[in-house]
From TrEMBL:
Pfam families, alphabetized: PH, SH2
Gene3D superfamilies for this protein: Pleckstrin-homology domain (PH domain)/Phosphotyrosine-binding domain (PTB) (2.30.29.30), SH2 domain (3.30.505.10)
PH domain mapped to chain residues: 145-210
Domain SH2: 16-110
Name assigned to this protein: Dual adapter for phosphotyrosine and 3-phosphotyrosine and 3-phosphoinositide-like
Domain of life: Eukaryota
InterPro entries documented for this protein: DAPP1_SH2, PH-like_dom_sf, PH_domain, PI-Interact_SigTrans_Reg, SH2, SH2_dom_sf
Native source species: Sinocyclocheilus grahami
Swiss-Prot/TrEMBL keywords: Phosphoprotein, SH2 domain
Keyword Phosphoprotein attached: yes
């Protein structure tokens, strides 16, 4: 028990250890706020002696297992005799290679606590418009302003090949066309019937979802 407590205490002092951060949350954090070469350490759901190193690599996030066994830490082809040695290894910006052939330099540890810039505007004008409306008239979900459009690559429903299609998003309707010049959409999706959107990590593509 003392060994486990010592490890937990040291990890708490490690500012880039994000303990209970999930895989999806780590990806969202590094993709939205991180830069190429950012990395963090978190717990793995593989077991109590397993950790995961999540690394921002250009427009994606790679995950690597770290194992603790008999007081030593195994990572890749290296074995570190102590947790301190394992952490010191990353201060030298090591080069990391993945199964897909990507080479990643671990440059910047992503801190567990990021201070929010204290930049706020002072309210100078705040007045009620005399419209005769009250709080019951407020719309809980404001509609999107304007139409978003562009090309996406879509997988076929029957033949599982990938084709480029022109998509338009207008409020709660998502339409896709054979090309930008076509007027009639191939299909219109009612987004009010959509309950969830999930990433698909089984595909060799960046930002793949269904």
């Amino acid at each position: 028990v003392k060994y486990a407590n010592d490890v937990s205490a040291f990890f708490f002092l490690l500012r880039w250890y994000h303990y209970d951060l999930s895989r999806h949350a780590a990806e969202a954090l590094l993709l939205s706020n991180g830069v190429d070469g950012n990395f963090l350490l978190r717990n793995s759901n593989k077991g109590p002696d397993w950790f995961a190193l999540s690394v921002r690599a250009k427009d994606s996030v790679k995950h690597f297992h770290v194992r603790r066994q008999f007081g030593k830490y195994s990572f890749g082809f290296n074995e570190f005799p102590s947790l301190q040695d394992f952490c010191s290894h990353f201060a030298n910006q090591p080069l990391l290679g993945s199964e897909t052939g990507s080479l990643i330099v671990l440059r910047f540890p992503y801190p567990r606590q990021v201070e929010e810039p204290s930049i706020y505007e002072t309210v100078c004008v705040h007045t009620a418009m005399q419209t005769g409306r009250h709080e019951n008239d407020l719309v809980p979900n404001a509609p999107a302003l304007g139409t978003k459009e562009g090309y996406l690559v879509k997988q076929g429903a029957i033949i599982k090949n990938w084709k480029q299609r022109w998509f338009t998003l207008n409020r709660y309707e998502l339409k896709y066309f054979k090309d930008k010049m076509f007027v009639e959409p191939i299909r219109t999706l009612d987004l009010t019937e959509c309950s969830a959107v999930q990433f698909d990590y089984s595909q060799e593509r960046v930002n793949c979802f269904w």
